[in-house]
Amino acid sequence: MRVEPRPGDPRITPALVAEHGLTQDEFERLVALLGREPTFTELGVVSALWNEHCSYKHSRPLLRTLPTKAPWVLQGPGENAGVISVGDGLAVAFKIESHNHPSAVEPYQGAATGVGGILRDVFTMGARPIALLDSLRFGSLDSPRVRYLFAGVVKGIGDYGNCVGIPTVGGEVVFDPAYEGNPLVNAMCVGVLHEDELMRAVAEGVGNPIMAVGARTGRDGIHGATFASEDLSEGSDAKRPRVQVGDPFTEKLLLEASLELIGSGHIVAIQDMGAAGLTSSSAEMAARGDVGVTIDTAKVPVRETGMTPYEILLSESQERMLVVAKKGHEEEVRKILAKWELEAAVIGEVIAEPVYRVTEGDRVVAEFPGSRLVTDCPTYTPPAEESAAVREARGRDVSAIPERVEEQDPVWTLEQLLSSPTVASKRWVYRQYDTTVRTNTVVGPGGDAAVVRLRGTKKALALKVDCNGRYVALDPRLGARIAVAESARNVACTGARPRAITNNLNFGNPKRPEVYFQLREAIAGIGEACTALETPVTGGNVSLYNESPQSAVHPTPVIGMVGVLDDVDRAVRSHFHDEGADLVLLGEPTSEIGASEYLARIHGVVAGAPPACDLVGARRLVDTLVGAAEKGALASAHDISEGGLAVSLAECCIMDRDRMLGATIDISAWSTLPLRALLFGEGQNRVIVSTRDLPALKRIAERNRVPLRAIGTVGVAGAPLSIRVGTRLIVTSLERLAAAWHDAIPNIMSRSTAPIAVAATETLTTPVE
Amino acid sequence: MKFGIVTFPGSNCDYDAFHAVTDALGEEARYLWHREHDLAGADVVVLPGGFSYGDYLRAGAIARFSPIMREVVAHAKRGGPVLAICNGFQIACEAGLLPGALLRNESLAFVSETVRLRVENPETMFTAGYEKGQLLRIPIAHGEGRYTADEETLTRLEGDGRVAFRYVGPDGRTDASANPNGSMRAIAGIVSEGGNVLGMMPHPERAVDPLLGSVDGLALFESLLSRVSA
């Protein structure tokens, strides 16, 4: 069939090509692929598929180096979500995804639709979503604009997840000027399925009908994926129309309908029409099945009149699915959708001819040979070079930075760190999320990792999202290793065995050598740590071009870790709750203070080498925690991270504000270390544990060659936190620490003026600068 | 005893209510789809939490017109027990089964946490398993939970002992900081004039399993079991 330019379509000019984000090389490649000039519709399709967001063109060669296999991995990268087996015939599907750029210009809808998208990625695998987590990064809360973004994002996440009825069980929020112009909003979803119900988004079966299911297609979000593939600029606010609008109620209906469809046996494949909408979902399913497809845009249910094939193909209207049904089962599919008050329309067919064809009625408006349109995108390995400024900052001798006068009272320093918004309690955030719906949340937000039971079994999942972007900025490979090791340690602190990760690589513009260097090194670091910890990568998301006119964000490879706890009754909490229990430090303090929260918060310094991360030691510590939890030898376990030993100890005491327990500690064994490094340094592979069975814990730690030292006891309610270091005695009331940690974010946020408006986007207050 | 759990398309606590009844209480439960026209022999009807029809207009405003609600109202008029939780409470008010209304939380933000409730009246069929003044720990999760009614209605509710639960602080007293949504007189739950409809914003079905931190909601279901089957 002949492809005809559609009357009224713009002519293909170099300017139009550039506007679509295609380079001259890519355009020539396209012309060679087609053997002719593309039509406007074809240019749109290719711009959608070959942008960074969909094609991974700058990251694919690097991602190929990651470890992706283990006996328990049922589905690795390349699908809508990764899937691992957890035993008992059950499997877990999970994935993390970013919605950074939409959230930067429209925080409420940007974040809400991010949650919607990641839910769909999970339930299209046949999994029922059981938990959401969020990894958020903003600039300094001192800025009214940042407070507006923060409040809007949190409300957007809450309103969407709460309505669909999936609990948000954990997450992280980091505040750092590096994210001022470009916040990061990453959402992770975890779902459960029976292994034999696993669904893959592979188009197959010549003659099978392709159906559009769910919400109708409108003009919203056209070129959203392209928007996500460029730097934010002064003009980005004008791209607000590229942000989609979410409807969580329709999502809930689509969730139930999709799971019913998958269970019904009437369909062979299903995929979210997410980034680049109908174009990418149809092209990706065709590519996976190595089949041809034909789509008739005239048959797509639309909610606006006069939509062109170009618009229909590129729309990112939310809450839509593309389904390949079994031939002859169309009516059954429609019936299931109708039960959930949704539509289904046949819009195309799987064909034998190896071609990706789009028609508008009888007219062919786009046709690409082969079934590999998605992977025909060129990949790039641009030059990489570390920034000299970073090298210099890392090499700086931070131990020479003189102490401030106030630091003579370490309790002052501790208070400052506890009230740092990055360290402080995030209850202000998670109080807006339904954390307990579906009644599986054993440990909700606020602990080392969330614990969600798998109903009908003894098992539970432990879930964590984690990254310290400051470490990655100062040493990408080491920082990425730490992100993996720390998320594994957090999961192991609950007693769970870390099993696999999903990752969200948030970086700047890869065409800049210093950014590509960060990306390359960070991926290498993730690979090393995942190999050492036996937690393969099952998929994820790459978000590049996270730059505002001011600067790029810290390179932030967020790790979403999934662990499995065999006996949910053995789940370990982070905080002290057992008066008189022995206190133990697993791991050794060091003299390191580089890249620490202490330096940033107290001295305004972002420099020095991040703490060393011995991956063998990380693995041994994980084994110790899992083994000790199994034997019931852990009363509590809390990782030492931002703010060091003193902050972690304080958190153990004050986390449960209704029942705070003091502690008496003696860490004189390390009194030769500089006091600030001992108290606030962030040396890795350390955990504070309370125990009723010190001998058993000792045996397990020794067997794993993990350093262990008894450092004190858990006190009673009302007792202070008292820390002895040699001749020095540091004593503080818990009320003082609790006020610093619990009240920091509410105090800052109550300064902001009007609350953020609800769903009605138009009425959102414009930020006052 | 048979529990019928109404499922609107946007219900999302139906599953929790189902498991509270079948797993924790050990009784029979079935879902009642919103388009159905009978209660399938249910002794107790549960109107669960969620966002019935999306609730973009006003929580529960559309749900009350559904076919199943006609049956639920008739069941309530016959004196049949109805447990209306969270969105169910909102629907019950919209449907006229209970007086008053649930407005947006005073903070204008969704609030999710475990609150303390004080049992005000242990004489109802829902609260017989509690002591008067007993303090309970029960989760809440709502954006529109501020119980509101005119003075006359409030006085009547109080006088007739129809306030079932109030939000209180750790000392068992009401005060503004312990009131999570700004409800008038810190009201967390009320019963109908006949005592057979309980509306409450907190989720007793989320507090029936020691693994999840509280079992204080279980006695509510047990009360129904002993009172209704007796």
Explained architecture:
- The complex is a heterodimer of chains A (769) and B (230).
- Chain A contains 25 helices and 26 strands.
- The longest helix of chain A has 21 residues, at 144-164.
- Chain A is globular, with a radius of gyration of 26 Å.
- Residues 753-769 of chain A have low confidence and may be disordered.
- In chain A, the strands form four sheets. A seven-stranded mixed beta sheet of chain A has the order 8-10-7-11-9-12-13, sandwiched between helices.
- Chain A is α+β, with helices and mostly antiparallel strands.
- Chain B is α/β, with parallel strands linked by helices and 230 residues long.
- Chain B has helices spanning 14-25, 67-77, 87-94, 151-159, 218-229, and strands spanning 2-7, 28-33, 44-47, 82-85, 101-103, 111-119, 135-142, 146-148, 163-168, 187-191, 197-200.
- Chain B has a nine-stranded mixed beta sheet with strand order 2-1-3-4-11-10-9-6-7, with helices on both faces. Chain B has a two-stranded antiparallel ribbon with strand order 5-8.
- In chain B, helix 2 (67-77) links the parallel strand 3 and strand 4 (82-85).
- The radius of gyration of chain B is 16 Å and the shape is globular.
- The chains are: A alpha+beta (769), B alpha/beta (230).
